Amino acid sequence: MKKIKYSLSFVLILFFFVNTSLAYAEKIVYIDMDKIMQLSKAGKDAISKINDQKKKDVSKFQKIEKELKSREEDLITKKNVISSEEFNKKLENLSKEINNYRTLRQEAIDLSTKSRLNASADFAEKIKPILADYASKNNIDMIIQKKNIIMGKTDLDITNEILKIVDKKINKLKVN
Hints:
By secondary structure, the protein is mainly α.
């Protein structure tokens, strides 16, 4: 009889804890921000502009690099023909130009990185109110980024729903 009382009281306590934990259950969903950035109209446009500029820079720097290599090879072939003083002077000028080229290339890389970061920051600023409104309307307590989740139900993924809203509300992102 004591075992039945203890079992019954254990079941009642367990039932109490389960009910209270269910009463305080939060609605949590997740979103793939990278996917939205890559697939939204504004995100595609920003990424396209950044990539176009990057291609132009790469092409420009490849031409400069070819020209510098050509000049270096030309100087090496003339090493025995010209005086050592003239050779050293031309070599010093070529070294300065190579250093300038490296500086310009690094500045272009930094500008590209800055453009990506600016577009991402602008995207984050513009999507916050959209997410807040969506969470409020759908009684959601927490929205987590997909990259921070190890495993989750696919029905908790709101990426496609938010993508539709973003395409309607965000037209352009700041690139520079």
